[in-house]
Amino acid sequence: MGSVTLPEKPHAAASELLVDAEIDDVPAAAPTRVTTRRGLVFLGICLVLIGLNLRTVFSSFSAVLPEVTADAGLPGWAVVVLTTVPVTLLGVFAPLAPVLARRFGAERVLLGAMAVLTAGLLLRPVDLAGGHLTALLLGTAACGAAIALCNVLLPGLVKRDFPHRLGLMGGLYTTAICASAALGAGFTYPVFTAAGHWTSALWFWALPAGVVLLLFLPLALRQRPVRHGVAAGGTNVWRSAVAWQVTIFMALQAMMSFSVFAWLAPILRDRGIDGGTAGLIVSVSIVLQMLGSFLAPGLAARFKDQRTINAVVALMTGGGFALSIFGPTELIWVWTGLLGLGQGSLTAVALTMIMLRTRDAHTAAHLSGMMQGVGYGLGSTGTLMVGQLHQATGGFAAAGVLFLVVGSLAAVFGYRAGRNRYVGG
Q1: Cα separation, 386 vs 380, whole angstroms
Q2: 336: exposed, middle or buried (C-beta count within 10 Å: 0-12, 13-18, 19+)?
Q3: Is the pTM of this model over 0.85?
Q4: What is the spatial distance between Cα 92 and Cα 401, in angstroms, rounded to a whole number?
Q5: C-alpha angle 387-390-393 in degrees, rounded to nearest 5
Q6: What InterPro entries does this protein's entry cite (predicted)?
């Protein structure tokens, strides 16, 4: 029994962001076993729905952060840790995903990750031993580890199982990731308002994760895992100056991207905007990220090099973030809109560098692993520094200066990464 594929026109730019983490497996990983067109459609729906659950943990917590802090009596250090740990774990657990997939099969690892994500979302609001802090920490850590595995394996499954539908599936997958953050930002506070407590607002996001887990369960368990070795050789990306330039560019964009998820809603509320409106503004900003991420890869690929577009979108992001803190609140939709378009474009062009700066799929996979491990690890320092600056100063003005600096550095490294050069010469 093999994978069923469907014909399609040449794929769109979104598919170029899909990197196969199993490219070095020997023997090559086989497609997911489905026997009918309906089964293939069901598999596609499951993969997109998994993507739709990979960012709610970040944006949902920030939407009710003042309520959680006040009700649970969280100390300042705990808020900093809770906004930093899940991003750090994206980098820590990313290298484990291909290793686990070679032993158990990518589908079963994805299933296990969704089970851990659901458990983490259920655990976060629990009152353990008279306090919420322990459960928040453990649940958030579990979510970060699970999302790391999904981040690495899901694009490869989309690319492997839908080789003739990459345009459609690549677009749906990348849209689902952005939509996940937008949903978490936009719906958490209304759920809190309706339920009357922040615990219900956070528990709500375990429901869609649990539904996807149940849907994917029979399909994943039907797969027969095959032990794989690792192909030797290939370019050593860790010794490439181009690879490091691309990776640092990725790390700087991640510092701003995850700071949006973790801190933009609290920043807006600190400026006097009510919780419901702040959540809506963040949600719309993230929707504009989707527009930027849709347009930027194709635009970047049209140029001989990407120096200009990399620098421009980095400055848009840093400037939009700073204006969201310093700019007149009457124009807050403009500032957050600029931030959304810039951030979506910045994330997309940073990922596009994987393909544009490498000559083959194996090098691309190695560069992707380096970018995720180092990029997310360093990227988590963005949320860490914002939290520490807020705790030290009692406001977000220092964070506004930080984003101007980070945006400028991203422009510098983006300009260098955008030169028409390749990893390995």
Answers
A1: 10
A2: buried
A3: yes
A4: 28
A5: 145
A6: MFS, MFS_Cyanate_Porter, MFS_trans_sf
Strand ranges (DSSP E) for 99-148? none
Task: List all residues 6 or more positions away from 239 whose beta carbon is below 8 Å from its beta carbon.
Answer: none
The residue assigned the tokens 């794929």 is 11
How far apart are the C-alpha atoms of 78 and 364, rounded to whole Å? 37
Spatial neighbors of 165 by CB under 8 A, at least 6 apart, are 5, 6, 8, 44
Task: Say if residues 379 and 257 touch (Cβ distance below 8 Å).
Answer: yes
pLDDT single digits (tens) 41-58:
999 999 999 999 999 999
CB 365 within 8 A of CB 19: yes
Asked whether the domain spanning 238-420 has the same topology as the one spanning 7-232, the reply is: yes
What is the CATH number that goes with domain 7-232?
1.20.1250.20
**In this structure, which amino acid lies at residue 37?**
R
Q: H helices within 162-205, ranges in order?
A: 166-195, 198-203
Q: Which residues contact 100 (CB under 8 A, 6 or more apart)?
A: 109, 149
The domain ranges of the chain are 7-232, 238-420
Confidence of residue 341 (pLDDT cuts 50, 70, 90): very high
Task: For 238-420, give the CATH class.
Answer: mainly alpha
